[in-house]
């Protein structure tokens, strides 16, 4: 059960000063809190013996008041230290998770659902925070407080009465240990179900337009209702066990009270203890209810924290399939070469690229065309180092990608994906994502190159217009041009457009291509597209089909050949579809 604390040993070592002080103060608080019941017993005995004087009573009141105030101050201090520490751990682990999410390769997200990752970053971290805060409190307080009270009862009142009254406690410990183990198993299942539900919510929100278009709202609502009911049932299974802790604790402590009153009355009659001592004993016994109940909560909190920590550490300890080289060099040039490259996705059942050979010189433009699913995006992802390289070699500036870090590769590249992901910020902030310290003139130039100047003037707040989540507030063509401006502002050595002109009209496409040609002299450009008009100017064009280059050459050379390129060009000239 306490393995969760061992796993978090690095944090306790880092914050040892905080926890040593907190535990010492907590121990002092336990000693201070046993004084009031003892004063009550002394007062009752003094009344019975008619020895309570006015001065003695005033002294007792002063000591009682000082003890209460001191107890309040001490309790505030240890609570502040403990719970501030738990918040610190949660913040640290959330930052670690975020750093992990930002550095992992796409294959990681293919194996881990977004909803489950969100559950780990919220619910699971909250359970870990409870373990380090309330869990440490119950562990230290329940054990030391119980020992302090039991020692006081045995030494100041009667060891016989103490021994007899505590007979039921081993039974309580056994029951709570069994319940804690069952909670660990059920809590892990419930958290996994919560992750599934999160994932379903994300999919429903992201696909809301499609759902509405196909009138699937009611179906999705029923499906989500069934899923939430299942999640609730799994959490209820956990809470049913959790709900047993308090009743079990109350029943067993009530049994201790019965034993204490019965045997205590016998000892009073024998003259072994006084009435005041019996009352003090029962007050102490009542104070034992908290530590005994806390032990029950301790099992619960530790098991939940352990299950959540295992889930979070599973993500933090995940190895990335992409590992940066220790010894690396920075390329001075930006030519790109594919030499006999064969590649297969980790989850794919077939080869996705076969024996690809391409040589793109510095300052040249490469066009990548082919039917849907031919491997155009796969080829681009190889340049971006998103997946481990297959057979063959890829070089940038005559340096093998295996000798370059991902940051070095991507610093040289300006990439516009076919998804055109925008952030829920302003147009200006989305463009500056490519270069945070960009000036207003640089932003204006990037917008001009993306042929977006007129559109900016028509936006409600111009560059300060919020684009909405994933750019929902603007059109597809505007999203594409903002994405292009974001890449252009970086002025990269290598510009990659992955089917990034599909949502703009032919006139706008021509303007953007002309801007790229005129402004990127001496820089390398790679354009993947379905529209052949976007690559007619390219120095070299490759036609992919099922991951194999079936044709290559310039536009004029490919037009002169009978093949896919000529057929597709003729269709598009006549207004046909690809």
Automatic annotation (TrEMBL):
Residues 336-571 form the ABC transporter domain. It is found in: Cell membrane. It comes from Macrococcus armenti. InterPro entries: AAA+_ATPase, ABC1_TM_dom, ABC1_TM_sf, ABC_transporter-like_ATP-bd, ABC_transporter-like_CS, P-loop_NTPase, Type_1_exporter. Keywords: ATP-binding, Membrane, Nucleotide-binding, Transmembrane, Transmembrane helix. May be involved in multidrug export. Transmembrane domains (TMD) form a pore in the cell membrane and the ATP-binding domain (NBD) is responsible for energy generation. Its main location: membrane. This is ABC transporter transmembrane domain-containing protein. The chain crosses the membrane at residues 20-39, 59-82, 127-151, 243-263, 283-301. SMART domains: AAA. It is a multi-pass membrane protein. The lineage of its organism: Bacteria, Bacillati, Bacillota, Bacilli, Bacillales. Residues 20-304 form the ABC transmembrane type-1 domain. It comes from the Bacteria.
């Amino acid at each position: 059960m306490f393995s969760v604390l061992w796993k978090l040993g690095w944090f306790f070592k880092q914050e040892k000063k905080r926890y040593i002080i907190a535990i010492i103060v907590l121990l002092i608080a336990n000693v201070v809190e046993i004084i009031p019941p003892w004063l009550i017993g002394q007062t009752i005995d003094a009344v019975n013996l008619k020895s309570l004087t006015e001065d003695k009573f005033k002294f007792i009141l002063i000591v009682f008041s000082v003890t209460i105030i001191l107890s309040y101050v001490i309790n505030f201090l240890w609570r502040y230290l403990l719970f501030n520490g738990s918040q610190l751990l949660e913040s640290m682990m959330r930052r670690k998770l975020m750093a992990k999410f930002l550095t992992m390769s796409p294959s990681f997200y293919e194996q881990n659902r977004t909803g489950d990752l969100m559950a780990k970053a919220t619910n699971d971290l909250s359970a870990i925070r409870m373990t380090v805060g309330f869990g440490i409190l119950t562990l230290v307080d329940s054990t030391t407080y119980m020992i302090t009270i039991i020692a006081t009862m045995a030494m100041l009142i009667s060891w016989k009465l103490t021994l007899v009254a505590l007979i039921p406690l081993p039974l309580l410990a056994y029951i709570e240990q069994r319940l804690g183990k069952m909670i660990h198993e059920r809590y892990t299942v419930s958290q996994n179900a919560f992750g599934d539900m999160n994932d379903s919510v994300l999919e429903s929100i992201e696909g809301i337009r499609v759902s509405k278009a196909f009138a699937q709202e009611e179906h999705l609502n029923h499906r989500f209702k069934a899923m939430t009911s299942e999640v609730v049932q799994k959490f209820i299974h956990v809470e049913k066990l959790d709900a047993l802790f308090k009743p079990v604790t109350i029943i067993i402590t009530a049994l201790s009270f019965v034993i204490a009153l019965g045997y205590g009355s016998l000892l009073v009659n024998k003259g072994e203890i006084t009435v005041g001592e019996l009352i003090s004993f029962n007050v102490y016994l009542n104070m034992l209810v908290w530590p005994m109940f806390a032990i029950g909560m301790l099992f619960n909190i530790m098991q939940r924290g352990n299950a959540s920590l295992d889930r979070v550490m599973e993500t933090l300890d995940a190895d990335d399939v992409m590992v940066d080289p220790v010894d690396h060099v920075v390329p001075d040039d930006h030519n790109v070469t594919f030499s006999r490259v064969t590649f297969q996705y980790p989850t794919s059942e077939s080869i996705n690229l076969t024996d690809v050979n391409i040589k793109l010189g510095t300052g040249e433009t490469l066009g990548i065309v082919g039917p849907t699913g031919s491997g155009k995006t796969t080829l681009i992802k190889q340049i971006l180092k998103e997946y481990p390289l297959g057979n063959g070699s890829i070089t940038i500036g005559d340096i093998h990608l295996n000798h370059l870090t991902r940051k070095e590769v991507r610093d040289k590249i300006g990439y516009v994906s076919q998804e055109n992901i925008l952030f829920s910020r302003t147009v200006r902030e989305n463009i500056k994502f490519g270069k945070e310290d960009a000036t207003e003139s640089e932003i204006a130039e990037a917008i001009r190159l993306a042929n977006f100047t007129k559109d900016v003037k028509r936006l409600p707040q111009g560059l300060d217009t919020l684009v909405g989540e994933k750019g929902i507030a603007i059109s597809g063509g505007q999203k594409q041009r903002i994405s292009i401006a974001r890449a252009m502002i970086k002025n990269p050595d290598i510009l990659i457009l992955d089917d990034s002109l599909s949502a703009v009209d032919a006139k706008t496409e021509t303007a953007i291509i002309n801007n790229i040609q005129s402004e990127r002299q001496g820089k390398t450009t790679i354009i993947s597209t379905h529209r052949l008009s976007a690559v007619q100017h390219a120095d070299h064009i490759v036609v992919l089909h099922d991951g194999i280059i079936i044709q290559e050459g310039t536009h004029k050379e490919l037009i002169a050949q009978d093949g896919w390129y000529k057929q597709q060009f003729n269709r598009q000239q006549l207004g046909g579809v690809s």
